[in-house]
Specification:
The chain is of the alpha/beta class. The chain is built from nine helices and 18 strands.
C-alpha cells in the first residue's frame, strides 16, 4: 500500500513544481500578470514616494487639545521621515486620509499623528476619533514629504490650529540647531491649540513665539508678522484658507513661501469646471479604453472599470490618485504636483486632457 501512495505523492509534487516554474517564467515576463507588461510600471505613485502598505499597532491615544486626538503607531522597520512629512491612513471604512507626522524622526519604532474632529467634514476625522482605539491595527502608506524644511538664513512660521502638526518637528529641529526662527500661532482658544505648552517652551528664549487665541485677541496679524523680513527668509504657512491667503498676499519680495493645505483652496479648479470637454482615456496595461464625459472626472471614469484605484480628497491636493501618463497632453488642475512631476503624471481626480485622448499606465 505504501508504494502506490508514495508514487501519488511524487507525481503531485512534480506537477506542482512544474506549475510554479511556469508561473515564475510568466511573472518574469510581466510583473503585473495577467496584465501585459510595460517598462517601469509605476502607476499610482511618483518615483520618489513610498507606497508600501503596512499595518501598525495603535499603542497610545491621548488628547493633544480640545477636539484633537493624538495617536502613536508602532511597527517594525519603519521607513525614516523628515519634518513636514505625512502618512496616508487607511481607515476601517476604506477611506484614505493624510495626517502630518508630529513626533520625533529619531523615534524609529513609531509614528505619531494628530487629528482634529471636523463635525461637518467628509467623515475621516470622525472615524479616527470614534473608531481608532489603543490596541487596534491600522494600515498606513508612506511617509511622504511635500512640505520639507529647506535651508534658509531664517524662518517665519504662520500657523493656525491643527496646522501646527507638520511644523512642530521643524521647530524642534531648528531650536536644536540654533537657527533663527519665529512663529505666529493662532487658534480659536488656547485650550483648542495642540502642543501649545511645548511650543511656548521652545520659543521661551528670545520671544520667538506669538500665540493669538481668537477668543482673547481676535485674528492673528499675519501682515505684521511678515514685515521687515531679511531677503531669503523662508515663510512656512499651514492652516485655514484665509490664513494662507493672507500669508500669500503679505509675502515680502525676496522671501520664499511654503504652503501645506489640509483642504482645497477656495475657488480651486475642479475636474468638471470650465473647459471640461469629453475625451477618452486608454488604460494601457488593462487593455481598456474608457470615455470621460464633460461633467465627469477621470477618476470616476477609471474607477468604473478599475474599482481598486486609490483616491482620497477628490480635490487635487492630497496626491493619492496620482497616475503616470504615457501619452497625451495633460490639463493640470491640481495644487500639488511639482513641475517635474507634471511632465509625466497627473492627479486624475481633477486634472483632464487637452485634446481627445490620454493614455495612463493602468
Amino acid at each position: 500500500m505504501a508504494l502506490p501512495r508514495l508514487r501519488t505523492v511524487v507525481l503531485v509534487s512534480g506537477a506542482a513544481l512544474l506549475t510554479r516554474r511556469a508561473l515564475k517564467r510568466r511573472i518574469a515576463r510581466s510583473p503585473l500578470w495577467p496584465l501585459p507588461a510595460l517598462p517601469e510600471p509605476i502607476s499610482g505613485h511618483s518615483k520618489r514616494r513610498a507606497t508600501a502598505v503596512r499595518k501598525l499597532l495603535i499603542t497610545g491615544r491621548t488628547e493633544a487639545a480640545e477636539g484633537v486626538v493624538q495617536l502613536r503607531l508602532e511597527g517594525p522597520a519603519l521607513p525614516p521621515w523628515s519634518p513636514g512629512a505625512h502618512l496616508d491612513l487607511v481607515l476601517p471604512s476604506g477611506l484614505v486620509r493624510q495626517y502630518s507626522l508630529c513626533g520625533d524622526p529619531e523615534d524609529t519604532g513609531a509614528y505619531t499623528v494628530a487629528t482634529r474632529l471636523v463635525t461637518d467634514g467628509r467623515g475621516g476625522s470622525r472615524e479616527v476619533h470614534e473608531q481608532l482605539q489603543e490596541g487596534l491595527e491600522v494600515e498606513v502608506r508612506g511617509p511622504r514629504n511635500r512640505f520639507p524644511l529647506t535651508e534658509a538664513p531664517g524662518y517665519v512660521f504662520v500657523v493656525g490650529g491643527i496646522g501646527i502638526t507638520p511644523v512642530l518637528p521643524m521647530l524642534r529641529a531648528l531650536a536644536a540647531s540654533g537657527a533663527e526662527w519665529r512663529l505666529l500661532y493662532g487658534g480659536r482658544s488656547r485650550a483648542s491649540m495642540p502642543f501649545l505648552e511645548e511650543i511656548e517652551k521652545l520659543g521661551a528664549d528670545g520671544d520667538r513665539v506669538t500665540v493669538v487665541a481668537q477668543d482673547e485677541a481676535g485674528h492673528p496679524d499675519v501682515a505684521g508678522a511678515l514685515t521687515d523680513l531679511a531677503p531669503g527668509t523662508a515663510v512656512y504657512c499651514c492652516g485655514p484658507e484665509p490664513l494662507m491667503a493672507a500669508a500669500t498676499a503679505g509675502l515680502p519680495e525676496g522671501c520664499t513661501l511654503h504652503l501645506e493645505r489640509f483642504s482645497a483652496a477656495t475657488g480651486g479648479a475642479a475636474g468638471s469646471g470650465e473647459g471640461s470637454e469629453a475625451f477618452e482615456v486608454e488604460l494601457r496595461r488593462s487593455g481598456r479604453t474608457v470615455p470621460v464625459a464633460a461633467g465627469q472626472s477621470v477618476l470616476a471614469a477609471v474607477r468604473a472599470e478599475l474599482p481598486h484605484v486609490a483616491y482620497s480628497c477628490e480635490q487635487g491636493f492630497c496626491g493619492t490618485c496620482q497616475q503616470r501618463v504615457l501619452e497625451g497632453e495633460i490639463d493640470h488642475r491640481d495644487e500639488l504636483l511639482t513641475d517635474d512631476e507634471r511632465g509625466d503624471s497627473m492627479l486624475i481626480c481633477v486634472s483632464r486632457c487637452r485634446g481627445g485622448r490620454l493614455v495612463l499606465d493602468l
